[in-house]
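Pilot study result, target chain (117 residues):
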Amino acid sequence: MLKIVFSISHLVFSFAMNSVLKSTNVSIMSKNSDIITSLGVSVKDTGNPALQIVLLTFKISYLSAHCKKHAKDHSTKRGLLQAVSKRKALVAYLQKNNPSLLSKILIKLDIRNTALS
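Predicted structure:
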């Protein structure tokens, strides 16, 4: 009996979390879609490094706000550091292959280029 109650409550919780995450992603994408369209890339082109940098920047801003609110959430801090590291690697890649697009992205997102320092 306890197992059934736990599985139902877990199912309800996971459903609620998925709906919250989907609504958060939709609001982030709709709010910042002008940046993505100004770069000339499609939202569905997930392999494009420029789009990955933009999406990681949105993720980093969300996670950093979460970490400020929940200081003891170490797993989120780890995810934040991983996202920053991945964005740094993508910035270095774009610096090497397409510096004009990178400068356009850095200006639009208001982030610094620390990949080469």
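One observation from the pilot: The two ends are 59 Å apart (CA to CA). A full batch analysis is planned for the follow-on phase.
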